[in-house]
Amino acid sequence: MTETSAANDQRAISGAELRLEQVVKRYPGQKVPAVESLSLTIPAGEIVAFVGPSGCGKTTSLKMINRLIEPTSGTILIDGQDIRQESATSLRRKIGYVIQGGSLFPHMTVATNVAVVPKMLGWDAQRITARVDELLDLVGLDPDRYRDRYPRELSGGQQQRVGVARGLAADPPVILMDEPFGAVDPITRQRLQDELISIQRELGKTIVCVTHDIDEAIKLGDRILILQEGARIAQYDTPENILAAPANDFVADFVGAGSSLKQLSLTRIRSLDLSRPTTARVGEETAPVIQKAEQAGDETVVVLDDRDRPVAWPWLRQMRNNPRVRGEPRENLVTLDQAATLNDALDTMLTSTHSKVIVTGDRDRYLGVIDFEAVTDHMRQAEKEAAEHVEQAEREPEEGSDG
I want to staple 335 with a disulfide (CB 3.0 to 4.6 A). Which of 58, 132, 262, 358 is the partner? Predict the structure, then answer.
């Protein structure tokens, strides 16, 4: 999203510019090319979402970037270098590739799966071990708990996290993602989207993500590429501009009705003020914590681990039977990244027993809590400001005609 773009100046960018020039893919026996003269530039450090109807050529376009599909003609450049100047195998080791379900090797442990490309590149064992642990931590999996597990011992969301870690393993400048979150339930999908945004905030890669879901594209993309049949560009722009000014009827129909509601989904949680209820550390004595919470008027306590990550959110009545504050595995607690949308916040609150949600930042560090009233107040204010803007715009021509 554009908030991510605005943050680009405040973080290191490890991605590379990606440029497609008149790229064509024509299959034998087909009258119409699968991709016809596709040209666009993807700036370094941005996420671009490729969306469009089934069969429009978005996955074919993605796979030509790492030469899983060879272009019929045209040029693809990464940081100004033609991708045909090296072998396809060498190229793919420099491009992360994440697909639906993670596509993990079932006979390999999590650590071995993540280490595949670094081993091919000849990294030493110590460097590989350190990189595996770093990446598992980055994608929200405790290395001590997960490095020796096999894919069959993981949930779908955990498998997808390992797939993302494997795509990042050799620190490639470009990451390709083909419907990466399409095979998981909606809540897990939202959390994986949040984690991707958080990872991108830290690493600044160039990411191309194919999705069929316009809402996912709006959430993830700094820019969105909407394709028609033959991978012809219907519109390539920021989510804000696409929602506010669709280029043609095809784009308007694809985005769908309710674009004003979709505009609200552009707003990130970080735009709202967070509350800071009582917190405690795992292992603290319970009695002083309960006393502090009662004095503050809080009915719950946010429990943090030694890295400031929330691990539990008990009610005071649940804490009274334990002499010390207890935590749970972090993945059991539903939280939202600060870059999650207001729609995400409302969806999460509907399934929460708190009617609130914990908000986290980089590496899942605790930032605060957002409640239902804060979200709805912001939405009402946004609608009021939008109505005033429209009213002002309608008055201006009349005022100009008086002169």
Answer: 358
